[in-house]
Amino acid sequence: MNFNRKYLSPTVCLLAGMLYALGFPTFFGASVFLAPIIGFALFNWALDQETSLKKQFGLSLMYSLGFYLFGFYWIPHTLQEFGGLFFPVNQLLGLLFSFVIIPQVYCYVVLKKYIKHPVFLAVGYVLLERFVPQQFPAHLGHPFLSLAPTIKLVFAPWAGAPFYSFLTAFIALTLVQHKMTKQKPKLYYGFIAVVLFLHLPFLYPTKSAENLTPLKIRLVQPNIGNFLKIDSERGEVNSIKSVLDSYYFLSTDGIVTKRDLIIWPETAFPNLFFSETFKADHKLLLPPVIRDIITKTGAELFMGGYDATVAATNDQSYQSDFNSAFHFSNQNYMKDVYHKMHLIPFGEGLPFGPFNKFLSGIITNISYFAEGDTYTGFKTDSNLKFVSVICYEVLFPSFVADMLNNQKEEAQFMINLTNDSWYGDTAEPHQHLFLSKWRALEFNLPLIRSTNTGITTVIFPDGSESKRLSVGEKTYLDVDLEIAPRTKTLFQIFGIWSFLSIALVLLLIELAFKRKAFFQEIMKTDKA
């Protein structure tokens, strides 16, 4: 009996972490939005069974391990593919990473030690999600996306995914409070009922958009393997030819209706550009394959590649180039370029500040890109404004909001260039797409997603998709879009403050009810 009690809480937390992971696409398939609610409730119940902070941290480790086993099981594969680490080293490092995948839970344990109120606890957890650094932010509220577009996530453009994280945490904490106190928190259940009611589809009749501008795009998915890609980037002539031949064929094949914009994925072009030179002189000849594609199709070209820094020299490799997105006019000149600003730790750089340059001579399988500093705004020949984010940048709503808010003219759509080839046919490409969809909902703009190995698609502001190109397909996708005028969403303007204002309203309502009960109790006492 004592043995069972000793291992009950750790087992419950391991299961809770697995349920959290089931809220996202996994090797089991589709996400289950209810699973993280149940998981977070079980996790909090287990924490309440222990008084020792040390034991509660141990339970958090089990919660993280469960999340890793069902959600981030693909990390060892990536360590092998990207870092050249094989069994058992990659598996051991994967287990080590499992303890820092959701670091906010450790801070939450400390918070829960001092705060018991469900609203404050739920708010605190969401703030931890927002401000505790994470490389792959998979938050409590994200699984609600699986309901869209069947159910309109009405709070997404108001308060973003943070509101749904709050809702998930609040429901879980309310259930735990009900279980522990045996008292039904009617106000809390009422608030949850109102929020759920506001999501009923009949409340939001479909409205036809006006002043639409057509945009015909072609998304190229070449499915180029890592060996060939790296070999071409190192300058091997046959590999370069093979890569560029694939892009040429997929960009020009079978065009029935003229395309306005052809889009290639992240780091598609293997050779180094010098954008400052090309932008300064529009008469300079672009690389032959780019000229030939533009001449044959009459389309603009938007693609990922590498751009040299101004300070780059022949004997310098550390931060000598940018991971970039280039925009070429259908008149065969470079219009503009965006340099990736949010680099991936341990993939595109190191997080050790002044020691990075020294360590770059020791740890050599990292790209060490320079960091961009400009939120570039692009414009098509038909005067449609757009922005571009590269790879994991799309996972950070505050970064995307900053980019949109720093545009002179409001962007009407966004392009996300990605290369998920390092992850193989695992859950990661599906999870990456799943989390990316939130930006379309939060900022009310179409998100065009171009990838090397999949998944390539267009995501609309209601969470629906165009036809998609799946993992491993080598082909192209033609999509005819109708781009609507766009205004800033509340979430774009106020960010995390939008969600906090809703939580504040709930707290004020609760305070009003408690004050009323307090004065009623006084009146009863006086009458007696």
Q: Provide the CATH architecture of the largest domain.
A: 4-Layer Sandwich
User: Main β-sheet, in a few words?
Assistant: 7 strands, mixed
State which percent range the strand residues make up: 5-15%
Tally of DSSP helical segments: 18
Say what the CATH topology of the largest domain is.
Nitrilase/N-carbamoyl-D-aminoacid amidohydrolase
Question: Rg, please?
Answer: 25 Å
Q: Helix share of residues?
A: 40-55%
Shape, per Cα inertia axes: globular
**Level-1 CATH class name of the largest domain:** Alpha Beta
Question: Which structural class should the secondary elements be placed in?
Answer: alpha/beta
Membrane topology: Multi-pass membrane protein
Domain CN hydrolase: 220-483
Enzyme class: transferase
InterPro entries: Apolipo_AcylTrfase (IPR004563), C-N_Hydrolase (IPR003010), C-N_Hydrolase_sf (IPR036526), LNT_N (IPR045378)
Task: Characterize this entry briefly.
This protein is an alpha/beta fold and 528 residues long.
Q: What does it look like?
A:
The protein has 528 residues and is α/β, with parallel strands linked by helices. Helices cover 46% and strands 13% of the residues. The protein contains 18 helices and 12 strands. It is a multi-pass membrane protein. It is an enzyme of class 2 (transferase). It holds the Pfam family CN_hydrolase. It is found in: Cell membrane.
